[in-house]
Every structure is written in structure tokens, then in C-alpha cells.
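DUF3093 domain-containing protein: C-alpha cells wanted.
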Amino acid sequence: MTDPVLFAERGSSWWPVLWGPAFALAGLLFELLTPGPVHAWTWLLVGGALAAGAAVWVHGRRRLVSVRLTPDLLVQGREELAVSRISAVAEVGPQVGARVLGGSWTTPKGTAEVPLRLADGEVVLAWARDPAGLSAAVAARIGEA
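Answer:
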């Protein structure tokens, strides 16, 4: 049985994987419409290589930049934080040198910081593309709202 998800953000969608084959198709069509040789196999290999590279990138983003809040856990990238350890989210200011959740030195690009105070008094930085949504969901879960 899985816990219900109270807040979630995927690190990326899968549609960027289609960019490479689309560019390769455009290149092939350009070659078909212009005089000269047509390198169909080359364009097929280029489209496949670009799609494979994009698939690796998307898979990494989905693992390392995803956010999920359940009744028991806040998952930030590779790190899981028990919700029972969170004591406050409202009126917690970011502190210089606060640890960033997820195992990185900084918050991921395109996200904003959400400072959390833990039960032991430590302030950590959660992050989300929708920081107000994450703050509201955490506050509702810990009984602050």
C-alpha cells in the first residue's frame, strides 16, 4: 500500500526526448527537398543519439529534481525527510549555510527555497518550483495552517 501524495513535482517530462528525432527528421526532409545526396542512415543515427542523450538527461532530472510529500515523508531528489521531524515552515527565514535537502550544494535551477525548521532546531532548505504550494502542503500536514 502506498501513501497518498499531498504534493508532487516531477523533475522533467519525457517530451524533450522527441527533440532529437524531430531535428533529425527536419534535416532529412531538407536533404530530400534539395539537390544532392541523401544521408538517411546518418540522420537516423543522429536522431537516435540525440534521443538517447535526452533520455539520460530526463531520467536524471526525474530522479534528482523531483519533489514528493506524503503524510510520512518529504522526498527531495535523493533525500527523504520524515515529516515528524519538521516543526515549522511558516516564518522560518533562510539561514546562511543551511543544508540544502536533496544532496546538492545549492537548490536546483528553476526552483525556489522553502526553509524548514526541524524538531532539533536546525534549519534546512527544501525547494520546489511552486514554493507556496509546498509550504502550504507542509504547513497543513504539520498542523500550522
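The chain has a mean pLDDT of 93. The CA atoms of residues 64 and 95 lie 23 Å apart.

Cheers.
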